[in-house]
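mind reviewing these tokens:
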Amino acid sequence: MLPNYKTIDHYLQEVALSSDVRSDDSGNLKYLSNKVLFVSKNGSFTIIDNAQNRLKKLNKSLEKWEEIIKIAVEFTTVRAYQVGLNYKPGKTWKQRDITDYIEKVKNYVGSENFVSYAWVAEMQKRLEVHYHAEIITTKTCRKVPMPDKKGHWKSGGSNRDEVSCVSINYLTSDYMKKKEQKSHYPKGIRIYSVWLNEKYFDATDFWALRSVSYPCWLVENINNAGLINPKIRRAAGGGWLVKPIGGVKEYFWKNDEGVILAGKEAEDFLKLEKYKYPMPF
């Protein structure tokens, strides 16, 4: 059975496509690792790199977060911190580590004073996770303490600097340039997160931040319908169900331009195509 229909916009507008279409010496199509195949209705196909897609979404979300913060937040009334979190030898990544740290800071300063945060996970050369976070609090609350000294981060060392403004260079540009920093992630890890406190941001801000994660055509339909920050979920059989907050009517949108093939289905398709006309592998 073929996977659910999905729109090409979801991928082509948000990912860097791989042109490395070849097999290894044994003929195995290992280049399909972390990739899927989009087959359009006319039979043409494109290889889509899910790892690149993931990193591109990370960058788009962080850029939008920074944009929202700089517009909505008056920096004379808040404090901004850059935080680094390491794992010491003998300690390794666990799924709730960064979540628990954020919760401890939120409880320490008071949830009403916790304005916003963003964090990213990168890999070190020794194949252990390292976190970079930006935390924004109100000016009048207690300062965010040094994570390891306060006991908010017990897995290793840490650093914390108070800064005059928010810049995602700390989260991405300066720390994600090397290949090993953005590969070999543990299974099940989230590589980034952004969050806004509804006390300081409105529905338009939340929708602007969420919308970068959805297909462009779907966001356009939602905006044209005049919906702001709606509930969105995938529909069985493909497409999306969109419901206004507090509304009754549920919209259904689907864009059937082709199918996504993964794993053995993708391999079988390409092996079949190899005998139709010359292929670059």
